Amino acid sequence: MNVSINGLHKAFENRVRLGIMSALAVNEKLDFNALKEFLDVTDGNLASHIKNLEKAEFIVVEKTFIDKKPNTKYSMTAAGKKAFEDHLNVLEQIIKSQK
After folding, report:
1. SS3 label, residue 67
2. Which residue range forms the structural domain that includes residue 52?
3. Torsions phi, psi of 74, nearest 5?
4. How big is the CA angle at 81 (ends 95 and 62), to the nearest 5 degrees?
5. What is the pLDDT of residue 2?
6. Residues 59-63: what's their mean pLDDT?
7. pLDDT tens-digit profile of 1-38?
8. Rounded CA separation 42/49 (Å)
């Protein structure tokens, strides 16, 4: 059985972006530090990948202050959820085709 990989989304080829989307898929919102700890990446590395996903309109950024300290939270957009689900479905098809 041949399965096309054309349905895989380029935005999720990187492990950090895949991790961000995976974490946001099961959490309504996560802050920067929670994502950084979960993915075990540096501030700069995480920030660049978040910027990429934000530019693709797959995540939204919410900036607030808690006790005068900035707090940035991220959540998945409807478009991001759809693109990520489509990506996962193609991966599932690829896996199933190899059984």
Report:
1. coil
2. 10-97
3. -125, 145
4. 140
5. 60
6. 96
7. 565 677 789 999 999 999 999 999 999 999 999 999 99
8. 11
Q: How far is CA 92 from CA 6, 7, 9, 51, 89, in A?
A: 14, 11, 14, 27, 5
Angle (CA) 51 78 82, round 5°:
95
Neighbours of 94 (CB within 10 A): 14
Q: How many helices (H) and strands (E) does the chain have?
A: 4, 3
Whether 3 is covered by a domain: the verdict is no
User: What is the bridge-based pairing of β-strands 30-31 and 59-66?
Assistant: unpaired
Q: What is the CATH classification number for the domain harbouring 38?
A: 1.10.10.10
Give which of 35, 30, 78, 76 is closest to 53, Cα–Cα: 76
